[in-house]
Design goal:
heterodimer; A: about 260 residues; alpha/beta; six-stranded mixed sheet; 11 helices; 10 strands; about 25% strand; globular; B: about 280 residues; Rossmann fold; 2 domains; four-stranded antiparallel sheet; 12 helices
Chain lengths: ~260, ~280
């Protein structure tokens, strides 16, 4: 059984008379331990898809199963198993970390959730916070400080530590390194790849940056206008794209040009 | 330091910029752009790239203290009044910003905004302005310049807006165009189009360009020469080929290594700047 089974997922956003078909009959499976890239341009439906997979939103039609259990359209009180197992890291750590909370309390927040506590054995929260801060390479005294005292890369490490706190099986990274400088991006990607390996995590890696996806994910799906237009091994998508849109996307990646 | 060459378009000497009582964010910077030359400035956030561009354009806020010399076509810009500067800005030199939506006035049609730049500096006649505008909109790759000219910014896509901004910047055939991350906010396929258009119109107009970007591959496509900035200083400069293939300064070497994902085996550890610079962040 696949870890995620997504069947005929459709999401329509309706505001007033305007209807936007954000996701159009998308089906997809994710295996345990897979590192899957989801690539596409703005408005392609990448974020809508992962929001539905994490059950942060309800589909207009279609179903999402996690570990064999339906999670789409299920009331929040019955989603403890999903919340404990699937964690997100978002693009901008400036807006995803509460500036008024100390880092220790930000990282421990998933552990305080009653939903998640029902699923996970009681853990010593302070010890777990120390453990995950150490895992992401932040000093132990970070717990007593506030997010503004950290650089962008360090804040993204805090967000990763928070995601790891409840010992999830799946990490969803939505443009997690897009706002970072290249040198910091390299460090955060190394950290992320190392953690996924060491902890045997399943990774859903959403990005508009194909070069990064090629490096991180052996497999990928390409999205355009709410549909998956092509999927397969990332190397093959690059070397022999079958769909014209994939070909266009690959051709558009800025390459180093030699002038001599 | 060698004597300033007389045939330079832009000569920046010992440029230092500080805000209020803080330590300078640009320190003793020298830059040279020859007519028609394209110089890329690369570096990470906080390295002083944008402040340098704004200093040259004379667009820094009042609390900025600028010392050193900025000469455009031999004319000293440091110390000019805003009024004197505004004759140069939009005429001899112009700027393209990252976010086209904030650079455009939402209440004016695209055509009127391009025409405004033209009428202010060139020719007040509305009819002649209109034909110059349509010609320029055609030059930035629009098949239907008249329809684009009569559209409001919200009716255009991100890539179309950035091409309108490019038309605004180039309608007066400036000698120097400063581009600050002009494609960073755009999707890759749109970025590819905008870069191609920019490359073509810079050539057609024969304008020199100062191109600021954190994306080294983009710079390698557009620029013949490169300056690498770190903490307000130029740590390396040379032809794009040389800097991207044989960087000398450890920081530049680290920056190039982290950007060259295309040279790595997928899934392997990425090189970091810290591998090259001891004690780097």
């Amino acid at each position: 059984m696949s870890l995620f089974e997504v069947e005929h997922l459709t999401r329509v956003y309706a505001t007033g008379r305007r209807r936007v078909l954000a996701l159009d009959d998308v089906s997809l499976t994710v295996e345990r331990g897979q590192r899957l890239g989801i690539v596409g341009e703005s408005g392609s439906g990448k974020s809508t898809l992962i929001r539905l997979m994490a059950s942060l939103d309800k589909p207009t039609s279609g179903t999402v199963r996690f570990d064999g259990r339906v999670v789409s359209g299920v009331p929040e009180r019955d989603l403890g198993f999903l919340r404990a197992s699937v964690q997100l890291v978002l693009q901008d750590p400036r807006s995803s970390l509460n500036p008024r909370m100390r880092v220790g309390s930000i990282v421990a927040e998933p552990l305080r959730s009653p939903l998640i506590r029902r699923e996970r054995r009681q853990v010593d929260q302070r010890a777990r916070v120390r453990e995950v801060l150490d895992a992401v390479g932040l000093p132990a005294d970070s717990a007593d400080r506030y997010p503004h005292e950290f650089s962008g890369g360090q804040r993204q490490r805090i967000a990763i530590a928070r995601a790891l706190a409840p010992s999830p099986e799946v990490l969803i990274a939505d443009e997690a390194v897009s706002a970072l400088d290249v040198s910091v991006r390299a460090q955060v990607l190394n950290l992320l790849m190392g953690l996924v390996d060491d902890l045997g995590l399943t990774l859903l890696f959403v990005s508009h940056d194909l070069a990064v996806v090629r490096h991180v994910c052996p497999d990928a799906v390409v999205m355009q206008a709410g549909r998956i237009v092509e999927s397969g091994p990332t190397q093959r998508l690059f070397s022999a794209p079958e769909h014209p849109y994939t070909a266009r996307l690959v051709a558009a990646i800025p390459a180093f040009r030699s002038r001599s | 330091m060698s004597a300033p060459a007389s045939n330079g378009l832009l000569q920046v000497r010992d440029l230092t910029v500080a805000f209020g009582r803080h330590a300078p964010v640009v320190r003793g910077l020298d830059l040279d752009v020859a007519p028609g030359q394209r110089l890329g400035i690369i570096g990470e956030s906080g390295s002083g790239k944008t402040v340098t561009a704004l200093a040259i354009m004379g667009l820094l806020p009042d609390n900025a203290r600028v010392t050193g010399s900025i000469r455009l076509d031999g004319q000293e810009l440091v110390g000019l009044s805003d009024r004197q500067l505004s004759r140069v800005r939009g005429d001899t030199m112009s700027m393209i910003f990252q976010e086209p939506m904030t650079a455009l006035d939402p209440t004016m049609t695209a055509g009127r905004q391009v025409a405004e730049a033209f009428r202010l500096h060139r020719d007040r006649d509305a009819g002649r302005a209109r034909s110059a505008v349509l010609e320029m909109l055609g030059a930035v790759g629009f098949d239907d310049p008249a329809r684009i000219a009569d559209s409001y910014p919200h009716q255009l896509s991100g890539g179309q807006r950035q091409r309108v901004v490019t038309a605004m910047a180039l309608v007066n055939r400036p000698e120097l165009v400063i581009c600050d991350e002009p494609t960073t906010a755009l999707d890759v396929t749109v970025q590819a189009t905008v870069l191609r258009v920019l490359d073509e119109v810079l050539d057609a107009v024969g304008a020199g360009c100062l191109f600021i970007s954190h994306d080294l591959a983009v710079v390698s496509q557009l620029c013949s020469d490169v300056v690498v900035m770190l903490d307000g200083e130029a740590v390396e400069r040379g032809t794009a080929d040389r800097v991207f293939n044989e960087p000398q300064h450890p920081y530049a070497a680290g920056l190039v290594a982290t950007a060259r994902l295309d040279l790595l085996e997928p899934g392997t550890r990425l090189p970091t700047v810290a591998d090259h610079v001891r004690g780097a962040r």
